[in-house]
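Lab notebook: predicted structure, single chain.

Context: the supervisor wants predicted structures on file for every construct in the current expression panel, including those that have not yet been purified. This is the next one on the list. No modifications to the sequence; it matches the entry in the shared construct table.
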Amino acid sequence: MTILHTQEGSTLAEHAVMAKPMTVNAARFAIASIFSGALFVLLLCILHLLQPEFDPTWRFISEYALGSFGWMMHAAFGLLAVTQISVAITILPHIRTITGYIGLVILGISAIGVIIAAVFVTDPITVGLEEATFSGRMHSIGAMLDYTPVAALLISLSLRRLDAWRPVKRVLLTSSVIAIVAMVMFVLQIPQDGQFGPGVMAGLFGRLLILTDIAWLIIVGIHAAKLGSSLQDSSQS
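Prediction complete. Output recorded below exactly as produced.
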């Protein structure tokens, strides 16, 4: 009876860390997340060079949509949403816990928020709540739906249980925790009176937050792409 119990326990333990093989479509979405995430960072860097009038220490990245190259900011937000959606589709077969599913839902809601932010142009940060336009209010609602750091932490806690993701579990957890810290620091920079200006570091910490988000998304995409590549190599051999 003792031996049987041990064997059953071993079987259950092995089942707990098994994941469905990475499909070809999932691997394609993983690659898409890498390229869209990298293009997002590239466009954001270019916008910093093209529109230096927006002080990055206290002006939000959304305000680049107000300038002459606003279309690039719209495109960047679209690429960010594509990255989030692609990662969610890629890892969906590997999620096996309630925590992971909650993380996927939050990531999906975050993508919807980013899409809303991409469609509706923000108001200048200096505009008060009473003077906010409909577009500016909608943009703010979209931005408030983005909780990618929370999704990253929950998904990382779920993926670390799988053998396929153990090689990057520390990187996933570390990057997600850094994103959580960046989110908290960003919130702390928001002035209680709503008065933004030089000396308010919300823009800087906002950029740090978005970079930590995209870093986690690309890390997931890269590892998922590797899993898909190794699966194709084994099938061909």
